[in-house]
Specification:
The structure is a homodimer. Chain A is of the alpha/beta class. Chain A contains seven helices and 13 strands. In chain A, the strands form three sheets. A five-stranded parallel sheet of chain A has the order 3-2-4-1-5, sandwiched between helices. Chains A and B meet through helix 1, helix 4, strand 5, helix 5 and strand 6 of A and helix 1, helix 4, strand 5, helix 5 and strand 6 of B.
Amino acid sequence: MTRGTLYVIGTGPGSAEQMTPEALNAVAKAAEFYGYGPYLDRLSLTGDQKRIVSDNREELDRAKAALTRAASGINVGVVSGGDPGVFAMAAAVCEAIEAGPPEWREIDIVTTPGVTAMLAVAARAGAPLGHDFCAISLSDNLKPWDVITRRLRLVAEAGLVIALYNPISKARPWQLGQAFDVLREILPGTVPVIFGRAAGRPDEKIVVKPLSEADANLADMATCVIIGSPETRIIDRGEKPGLVYTPRYFAGGSK
Amino acid sequence: MTRGTLYVIGTGPGSAEQMTPEALNAVAKAAEFYGYGPYLDRLSLTGDQKRIVSDNREELDRAKAALTRAASGINVGVVSGGDPGVFAMAAAVCEAIEAGPPEWREIDIVTTPGVTAMLAVAARAGAPLGHDFCAISLSDNLKPWDVITRRLRLVAEAGLVIALYNPISKARPWQLGQAFDVLREILPGTVPVIFGRAAGRPDEKIVVKPLSEADANLADMATCVIIGSPETRIIDRGEKPGLVYTPRYFAGGSK
């Protein structure tokens, strides 16, 4: 039988200005949309297009529901904030396909990449990701906490700038504070830490603190936290916000 | 005096479909554009808008020229491929401002983020960046080679997926092969390596090899190389290309 196509759609950081035409075209092609409510709210749908809202933590069930519909011949959209390939729905869809019935492997998967949160925050703060960096999810729902702290130690020793996704939530209140403690053992206290919330949206808020004063209370679920390397610098511009950036050259501040 | 605004513009991976409306709006506001020729070629300029082409390796001089013009009151665009904050012009502009005359700090800097190469390649391959990952530039023009190999070892030990930018060029022919050798000492030979060239463009080419067979000749200047972690898997789909992905959960394949 003819299978539908499953579009895995990245809506970018939240402003319509930062969503690609490719993602909009994918939206036009699908009949049903699966996702977390606030991400689905970003789409302008016609009366014929259907929304199926699910909770933020139900990625795998959502992926299965969407694949079931696509297998039956419907064109389906699975919607992510930012980029769907970064700690988001593209991996959940793959997990579901691997464990699912053989017909799910016959579905065309079309993923439209998007501007992921760390890139939007970095653009507002200066150029903190101008040199080697990493992205680490602080969620210990699917990964043991000691794996996370081990990774933080190794990337800090490597001198990489660190973007933390999923830094904090009601169910995970202490992890970010402990991550700062781990990093303070390795990195200088002067390293800049950027708390970037809702970058590119009307309620955007960017706060910069030295690591010695970084406080987990400055973050919430919608925050991307970027921790500089020993190479990361701040250009003072008087009344304008400072520019936080990591040079392309290696000055020797990290190893 | 009134300063111009300096727009640092990300054009995305290359297809017009993957450039954001925000970047297009920034293009509309500037009078002069500085960049590498192939990136400037992506812009549709009016007869009044001026192009100043420079070589790919002249980022700092280009930034200085653009800042000089912006300081004199002109709205200027500095153009990058992908995202300007990732191994690109945003950091070069900051370097120039920090070392430049005080009036350069009075210029408004507006950076429009874009879809960076690794996200575009990942979207085509499956979801290889679905869990913790890093981006490392393999260029030793501005960073000693032993720093690069040390970083590769640490991030491989950390179990991160590794995206390599600037993997190879005529002037740097042997670095990618040596990077594979370093990683083969730490990672299983079965780890998938994605060679993603020109993702999203008509001449796109995605090749996947196990690390044991990864060959630097499969890459050129326009390639982003993504090396999986021990958690990264491939879903066989028969005639369709396999889906390379890194699960959101931690199965214990890496530490």
